[in-house]
Specification:
Elements: E1 2-5, E2 18-23, E3 26-31, H1 32-35, E4 52-59, E5 65-71, E6 83-87, E7 111-116, H2 161-181, H3 198-202, E8 215-222, H4 224-236, E9 245-253, H5 260-263, H6 287-293, H7 330-338, E10 341-344, E11 352-353, E12 370-373, E13 396-400, H8 404-409, H9 429-432, H10 435-454, H11 467-474, E14 475-479, H12 488-501
Parallel strand pairs: 6-7, 6-8, 8-9, 9-13, 13-14
Antiparallel strand pairs: 1-4, 2-3, 4-5, 5-7, 10-11, 10-12
Helix pairs in contact: 10-11
């Protein structure tokens, strides 16, 4: 283990300072006043050096290793002290461009573990990329740092590598590091009795088992890190009392929770933004940015249909055909939609489809092959979690920044009901694929799961229970500027305190 003392950066200017960041090849501005962002500081007002960080190497099987930066390690000697898991906005190859850690996580009383996952892929020359996007190139990753050079292909880590990195780091923290910092105490031994006592031979008074103290964990992620943080929280929020930890809460800021529309549709034309609509200064991503980076994150469109890459698929089906290649024009989409002719045969026959082009089946004499047209799939709800899984929906807070498309169409982040008779095809992708639309759809799906599945048995005996009100408390959405006075940081701090007290 190598202990590093990093430089101290003091950000005395707060208020409305904006920190310019570079995310996936495009410049964005993130308002410091709205999310309370600032870097770790060692000013005298904090009373101690919170910038002391210890870096750990975590082996990820045969896929090399990553690092985990642990801040304020000494606080973890108390088994009840919470630990915050921080997933940066992009992979570790863009570490120099990561935004600073939010101020509600950076304090002298907070123990924080930063998981430096890898998520980037060098596009190959044969990759189908639209000519409209050729000018917007993804920044090439810098040379491999010495600390992460154990894997020969460091610069090429597409999904699911970031998921595996996150799980390896989570298991290392919860199963190796935390138990070593605060080991369980052995139960007290009973007093030694005299060998001449008649009770010592036949009676051994039971010693009470020590109660297991569970450490609360709060997972935070933004942008691409929010996708991984959400998948991790949904699948690791266990109800077991025999674990030394529990997921106390999830905070996801401006995440992408559904990649399927991005992978199954061509890039839209540039938006014609009227001059009278003010340009937002804190937009983290927009739809064009996702189209630019999709081939640098996933090897094929099928990878985006993984529920761990698109967490909304834990709660519903995609409702789309999986395209064989990245669509670049509307003709590619029409080809996938119209290619519903699927060949079916018996065990010795051929089963395939003509999505990749004309299919030339090998006709076997004596075998019957029939064709049928498959209609486009429809979205349908899924039951998550299953009854005996031991998983519950974690207390969640989704933070969203207003985007240009949401400002030009509506002033509210609450999705409106679709007008009767209006087809879903009439909706623009820009109206759905934005930070507000993605967060609200996932939040509604999680609330539905809490109200209909998790609280189903409790409703039979708790007559005062309002399952939908309980679901609204469990899953919340907070937009920047929605709190009176703009005190989002104080509201987030209150939410953290409520989660730790629950």
């Amino acid at each position: 283990m190598k202990k590093l003392l990093r430089g101290c950066v003091s950000t005395s200017q707060r208020g409305f300072n904006c920190l310019s960041i570079q995310t996936a090849g495009a410049a964005f501005r993130y308002s410091e006043s709205q999310l309370g962002l600032r870097q770790y500081s060692t000013s005298h007002e904090l009373g101690r050096d919170v910038n002391e960080v210890e870096t750990f190497d975590v082996t990820c099987g045969s896929a090399g290793s990553i690092t985990v930066d642990l801040y304020n390690k000494s606080l973890l000697t108390q088994p009840t002290h919470p630990l915050f898991l921080y997933l940066p906005s992009t992979g570790t190859h863009l570490r120099s461009n990561h935004p600073p850690i939010p101020s509600f996580l950076a304090s002298d009383t907070t123990a924080l573990a930063c998981i430096n996952y890898r998520w980037n892929r060098i596009s190959v020359s044969s990759q189908c990329v639209s000519t409209d996007l050729s000018s917007a190139s993804y920044p090439s990753p810098p040379p491999s740092p010495a600390l992460l050079s154990s894997h020969p292909s460091f610069a090429n880590h597409a999904f699911p590598t970031p998921l595996h990195d996150t799980l390896h780091a989570f298991n290392y923290l919860t199963k190796s590091l935390l138990p070593s910092l605060c080991p369980l105490e052995a139960p007290p031994k009973s007093p030694t009795k005299s060998p001449f006592s008649p009770r010592s031979r036949y009676y051994n008074p039971p010693t009470p088992a020590p109660s297991l103290i569970q450490r609360p964990l709060i997972i935070y992620g933004s942008y691409l890190g929010a996708t991984l943080a959400t998948s991790l929280a949904l699948t690791e929020s266990l109800l077991s009392k025999h674990l030394p930890y529990y997921i106390a809460g999830l905070i996801a800021a401006d995440g992408i929770y559904d990649w399927t529309h991005i992978s199954a549709s061509p890039p839209p034309p540039p938006l014609d933004t009227p001059s009278n609509i003010p340009q937002p200064t804190n937009t983290l991503w927009d739809i064009s940015q996702l189209y630019n980076i999709r081939t640098h994150l996933f090897t094929s469109p099928a990878s985006t249909f993984d529920a761990f890459a698109s967490p909304i698929l834990f709660f519903r089906t995609a409702g789309l055909h999986v395209p064989p290649t990245w669509p670049t024009t509307t003709k590619d989409v029409e080809k996938v939609q119209e290619a519903g002719e699927v060949l079916f045969g018996d065990e010795e026959g051929l089963i395939g489809s003509n999505l990749d082009g004309p299919l030339q089946p090998e006709i076997i004499p004596g075998k019957t092959i029939t064709t049928m047209d498959l209609a486009p799939p429809r979205k349908s709800h899924l039951k998550f979690q299953s009854k005996d899984s031991g998983i519950k929906i974690p207390k969640s807070l989704f933070l969203i920044s207003p985007s240009l498309s949401s400002q030009s169409t509506t002033q509210s982040t609450t999705p409106k009901k679709k007008a009767r008779g209006k087809k879903s095809q009439d909706l623009r992708l820009e109206d759905v694929i934005n930070p507000a639309g993605q967060a609200n759809e996932l939040a509604e799906a999680m609330r539905r799961s809490v109200a209909l599945h998790e609280l189903k048995d409790r409703k039979t005996w708790d007559y005062d229970l309002d399952p939908y009100a309980e679901a609204d408390k469990r899953v919340e959405v907070l937009e920047n500027g929605s709190v009176n006075g703009g005190n989002e940081r104080e509201r987030i701090q209150e939410w953290i305190e409520e989660s730790l007290e629950a």
